[in-house]
Amino acid sequence: MTLHIENNALLNWFQRQQTPPGWFDLLAIMIDGMAQNASAQQSRPFLLQMGDKLAQSYPLSASETLQELENNINQHLSYFGWGCIDITSTETALLFHHQAFPVCYGQDEERQIRWCNAFSVIMEGVYTRWMLQQGGEAHVIVTRDSILSLSEIQFRYHTAQ
After folding, report:
1. CA 145 to chain centre
2. CB of 83 within 8 A of CB of 99?
3. Residue 57: count of CB within 10 angstroms of its CB
4. Beta bridge partners of 155
């Protein structure tokens, strides 16, 4: 996993847009504290629930096409300042390529990784709820597929195993 972004313009954008002082610092401290005091497995249900609750508070409009779904999700992500996604379809899943994922800069490497892992789980909850709102089934979920870098995550919408 790449921990550093070489593009200074992109790094500055992240810092200005995604990490407002105070609120983001508090959130990062809370997430880091939880990650240090509970295992990933112990904190996972709570983080999924927080993502689910957020998505319930910000429901998506109904989408008729994949492009419309992508646009509707990107509207919310833009409003939150949380980057954007591209959605591609495979035979067995939808892939959500999330770019400009919120990053916890200015922290040590371990804290950055804990933030990325925890926030990924929150986004699994968000994306899963949004897909349920689009008519998805409860046994089809969104999980993190891969971490391409701290600011680029791929999620997979697929049948739970």
Report:
1. 12
2. yes
3. 8
4. 96, 144
| pTM, 2 dp | 0.84
Where b means 16+ CB within 10 Å and e means fewer, 114-145 reads: bbbbbbbbbbbbbbbbbbbbbebeeeebbbbb
Distance CA 30, CA 98 (A): 23
Please report, rounded to a whole number, the percentage of residues in the chain having pLDDT higher than 70. Answer: 83
Instruction: Convert the pLDDT of each residue in 99-133 to its tens digit.
Output: 988 887 666 788 888 888 999 999 999 999 999 99
As beta bridge partners, residue 146 has: 154
| CATH level 3 topology of 8-159 | Muramoyl-pentapeptide Carboxypeptidase; domain 2 (3.30.1380)
Three-state DSSP class for residue 100: coil
- pLDDT tens string 30-61: 887 887 788 778 899 999 999 999 999 999 99
Closest by CA to 157, choosing from 102, 99, 100, 92, is 92
Which of 122, 109, 107, 83 lies closest to 25, judged by CA? 107
CB 150 within 8 A of CB 112: yes
Q: At which residue do the structure tokens 């609120």 appear?
A: 23
